[in-house]
Amino acid sequence: MDVATLFEQMPFAQHVGIEMREATDGRAAGYIELEDEHASAPGNGVAHGGVAYTLADTVGGAAVISRARKPTPTIDMRIDYLAPGDGDRLEATAELVRYGSSVAVVDVTVTDGEETQIAEARGVYKTGGGDGANAWQDADSQLPGE
After folding, report:
1. Could you tell me the maximum CA-CA distance found in the chain, to the nearest angstrom?
2. What does the domain layout of the chain look like in residue ranges?
3. Are 34 and 46 in contact (CB under 8 A)?
4. For the segment 105-134, what is each residue's pLDDT rounded down to a tens digit?
């Protein structure tokens, strides 16, 4: 199973509507079509900040997993909101900045469907532990199907 397929089967990503376009070689891209339930207030058409954050975290994680080939939980993510997300969709692109034996760092850009920059984020993800295991599974853990 490839990384994009893994994220297509992630229950939370399915619940909020995240679609992955690609996840290879430390880069990833995905999007979410905005619906009424993503709004920050009734009838305002602006996505809640948590939607941009969720998209950034998910796409950032996919970029790391494309390199690690195993689950890599989020340690920390910092996000700067730059403009309201008021289009039909939000898109995110992520690029691996650093990949180490214990953590990886990813930069993520979130835009609306028309290239307006909505947010910039930097995420830190766990790539290994003191005993070689990750935070979720044993040291031999790989992507499902590998």
Report:
1. 50
2. 3-126
3. no
4. 999 999 998 889 999 999 999 998 755 554
Q: How many CB atoms lie within 10 A of CB 52?
A: 26
Q: Contact 47/92 with Cβ under 8 angstroms?
A: no
**Inter-CA distances, 93 with 20, 28, 35, 110, 130, Å:** 10, 6, 21, 7, 30
Helix-, strand-, coil-residue percentages of the chain, each rounded to 5: 25, 40, 40
Other residues' Cβ atoms within 10 Å of the Cβ of residue 101: 9
Mean pLDDT for 25-49 is: 88
Residue written as token pair 């290239």: 115
First-to-last alpha carbon distance for the chain, in angstroms, is: 7
CB burial class (10 A; 0-12, 13-18, 19+) of residue 104? buried
Question: What sign does the dihedral 137-139-143-146 (CA atoms) show?
Answer: negative
Distance between CA 31 and CA 8 in Å, rounded?
12
Q: Which CATH architecture has domain 3-126?
A: Roll (3.10)
